[in-house]
Amino acid sequence: MPMESRLPIQPSEENHATNEPAVKQTIPFWRVVLSVMQASFGVQNRTNRERDFASGKFLPFVVAALLFTALFVLSIALVVRLVLPE
Q: Which of 26, 32, 60, 86 has the fewest CB atoms inside 10 Å of its own CB, making it the most exposed?
């Protein structure tokens, strides 16, 4: 019995009706930040994840993830420093 693939089938890069390249969707900065925050907490839904991968650009997501991680670590360090006595 073959195992079903749970990954969505990726659309091809060409529009078969006109043989033109498919237009990549650009995602606004606030959507990138929101997607990174949702993914970091594990609440990213399937449609948003597919939209993010369909954009074809990963650099904005990497930059946003690095910034989010740095801010998260700094905020945790600040809270610990404020709570613990010296």
A: 86
CB 20 within 8 A of CB 14: yes
Residue 40 in tokens: 């970091």
pLDDT digits (tens, 9 = 90+) for 16-28: 555 555 556 788 8
**Per-position b or e across 2-34, b if 16+ CB within 10 A of its CB:** eeeeeeeeeeeeeeeeeeeeeeeeebeeebbbe
Question: Tokens standing for 3?
Answer: 């195992």
pTM: 0.63
Contact residues for 39 (Cβ-Cβ < 8 A; gap 6+): 49, 65
